Amino acid sequence: MREYLFMALIAAAVTYLLVPLVRRFAIRIGAAPEIRERDVHTTPTPRLGGLAMYGGLVVGLLVAGQLANTGEALAASDGEPVLALIVAGGLITLTGFLDDWWGMDPFIKLAGQIAAAGVLVHFGLRLTYIPLPKDWGGSTSLDYTLSTIITILVVVVAINAVNFVDGLDGLAAGIVCIAGMATWAYSIYLGQNVSGDRITTTAAISAVLIGACVGFLPHNFHPAKIFMGDTGAMLIGLVLASSLVTVMPVDPSVIEGINRFGVLLPLLVPAAVLVLPLIDLITAVVRRTSYGMSPFAPDRGHLHHRLMDIGHSHRQSVLIMYAWAFLFAFGIFAMSVVSVPVLAFPVVILLALGVLVLMALPRWRGRGGAHASRGKPSSDDDGPPTGPMPPLRPETEFGRRVPPPGGPQERTSTDPHSVIPLHPGRP
């Protein structure tokens, strides 16, 4: 337990200390694009925060490999998980960096995601079989080709799911941190009943992922000083998928007696961990294709946008989505620990969804409800709109001059003694 805490603290500290350096670098190269119509922030904010997260992940993984128990398990694990994550993480970070800096065609970015997933498979981080109950035919063994295809599919879907949900300050980092905590708790729970290097590998990967997210959140929570960008969103999606890939192939016959539906846990936990990003991903694809748009075309219809549109503040929207992620991720885990009957599972989930739907309703302001506040100044005390603190100065930090509102006000004269009157309209 202490080893996991240590590697998480190392990853958090390195990430936290690297963010200011990465922010200056992003400002210097101009990686702070103009405000887009779908954005909720109002000040150009540097991206590339994922570079700091990658640094924290690399150091955390290297430290994990040197610890007594964890290092031995990582060395004995199938494949080379530390090298796999460093190489695959570096490839996906480079892909995100180029996209955040220059922009990239969606299909080229998809190719980078597939390549990073292929690196994981090459180094042995892949699904070897799918655990299923005996009534469903038992565990299904996967040959190398099918294993490769399914593993790449799982990794790419997880990367894009996290990338899609990254739309508010602290949202993606917080949700992935919660997902990592649930995965870590599940692996620790399994480790008390089942021995195996893959379970220790999952716990180590999850601990380092938690640390990187925790180290980044102080800089990224509203109002954000820096965004993780695609550089960070795709990276933490890749690492989260890696932890799920290593924990899923757990022999159901071994954990069958742990609880009443333990045989389904290797499938239920990954689904619960990713349910919120997956819902956002699926609804976005359906929404865009129904309007004749590309599935990769950006819009302002994500879950977090809708929460803000119905009256919630920036922070409230983020916290509501944290609550959703926590419910799904830890709900499955907690129900398995206390041996809840399978039939109780859908009832509890429906009740919890009802509570969360009520939480997502607009805030009522006076007798007129949420609509009575239209045209009135908001009483929200969340602070200024998202943006760096203090605001960046575009004319000095991005190499261009921004004219003041109302058009250029400068007046020039060839006469050095000419005087511009204080009130031009008066004689």
TrEMBL record:
Principal cellular location given in the protein's record: membrane
Keywords: Cell membrane, Membrane, Transferase, Transmembrane, Transmembrane helix
Region (Disordered): 367-427
Subcellular location: Cell membrane
Pfam entry (one): Glycos_transf_4
Entry-linked InterPro entries: Glycosyl_transferase_4
Organism (species): Nonomuraea corallina
Protein name from the UniProt record: MraY family glycosyltransferase
